[in-house]
Amino acid sequence: MLDIKFIRTHKKEVANAAKVKNMQVDLDKLLKLDDEKRDLQTKIETLRAKRSQIADEISTIIHKKEHNKDKIETLKNEAQSVKNMLKDLEPQLVEVSEALFELSLTVPNIPAKDAPIGPDESGNKVIASYGEKPKFNFKIKDHLTLGQELDLFDLDRGTKVSGFRGYYLKNELAVLHMAVLQFAFEKMLAKGFTPMIVPTLVHKEALTGSGHFPFGKEEIYQIANPGKLSDGAKITEPLYLVGTAEPSLLAYRMNEMLDEKELPLKYFGFSACYRSEVGSYGKDTKGLYRLHEFAKIEQVVICEADHKIADKYFQELRQNSEDILQALKLPYQVLEICTGDMGAGKYKMYDIETWMPARQKYCETHSNSHLTDWQTRRLNIRYKTKDGKKVFAYALNNTALASPRILIAILENYQTADGNINIPSELWKYTGFKQIIKK
What we know:
By secondary structure, the protein is of the alpha+beta class. Helix content is 40%, strand content 20%. The chain folds into two domains: 4-104, Serine-tRNA synthetase, tRNA binding domain (Helix Hairpins, Orthogonal Bundle), CATH 1.10.287.40; 121-436, Bira Bifunctional Protein, Domain 2 (BirA Bifunctional Protein, domain 2, 2-Layer Sandwich). The chain has 13 helices and 18 strands.
C-alpha cells in the first residue's frame, strides 16, 4: 500500500510502476474516491460541530431562570435536521472509505531504479552463481525414479488420501526431510534471528497485510468450518491457511508502535505451508516440485525506513540462504527479478535457483524480497524515531529452506552409479546415515 498523498503527488510515477509490472489500476478513480471521502469527512465534521453547538445553546437556555421555550423548540428542530443529514452522510462515508481502501490495496510499490525492466521472467538477470554442476559418467535418473526404486515416497497413495499433488514421504526421505529443516533452523538460529513456530491459520488481516490479498488470493485455502468460541457460538470471521510463514511473522507486530531501539526485528519461522496452485495448472504435475502442502523456514526483517540500511539486510537475507545451499554443496544461481515478474509489492527481488540435473536447469528454491513500507502500511507497523517522529518501518523476507522441493536437488545431485544417494556431510548428524542404499 502506498500513501495516498504520495500517489496524488507522484501519479505518473505510480502509473509507470503499474505499467512495468503489467498491472491495471484505476488511479483516477482512486483519487476521486479520496476526494469524495475528504468532502464527506468535512461535511460530517461540520455537522457534528453544529450538533454540539446546538446542544450547548439548549443547555444554556434551560439553565436560565426564565427560558425561551420557542427558541428551544426551534433549536431541537434544527438538531433533528442535523441528525437526519448525518444519518444520510455517515453510511456514505463508510461505503466510500471501504471502496477507497480496497482499491488502494491494488496499487503497486515503486520498483527500485536499478531493477531490470522486463515483461516477464524472460527479463530476469543472472547476477551470481555457485558450484560446479555435477558430471555423471552414467545415465542419471530423475527424483521420481530414484524415489520409486529406493522406496522413498508414495505419490499414488498420497493422491488416494489427499487428492491431486498428495504425497507420502517414507523411510530415509522422511528422515532427510526433517534433517534439512533442522539444519536450516539451526543455521538461522546461529545467525541471531529469533526463532518462531507460527500460526498457519490466520485472519484476513494478516494476508491482506502481507499482500497475499487481493493478489494471489486464488492460491489461498479458506477453512470451511472455522470453529466455535468458548461460549459455543460459531466463529463467523473466516480463517485461511498460510502459504508461507511470512504473513504470520509480519502480523506478529501488526498495529503496534515500535521503538527505534528495537530495530531491526529479525525473525525466522517454521510452518507448514498450503497452496492451491491454481495459477500453475498443468505445470509440474508429477513429483515433489509443486505441491499443495510442504514445510518451510522463512526469514523476515523489519527495519528502519532507510534504503541504505534495508539494502544491507536484503543482502544479508540472500547470504543466509546462499550459506545454507553452499553448506549442502548444491550448485545454484541468483537471479535479479525484473519488474514484470516481481509482483505488486516488491521494490527489489532476487530468486535463487538450485540445479536439478534431471531437468537440466536451475529451478527456483528461494525468493528474496525487499518491499519498503508497502506491507507495513497495510499492517500499520510504525516506529518512533529519536526525535519523536512516527514512521512506517521497512519489511524484507526470504526463504531459508523449503522441503520437499530441496530434496529433489539433493536426490539428483548426490545420486551414484549404483542407484544409491549420498547424503551431504552437513546432514549426517541429523540423519544418522551417510547414504541411502538401494535394497
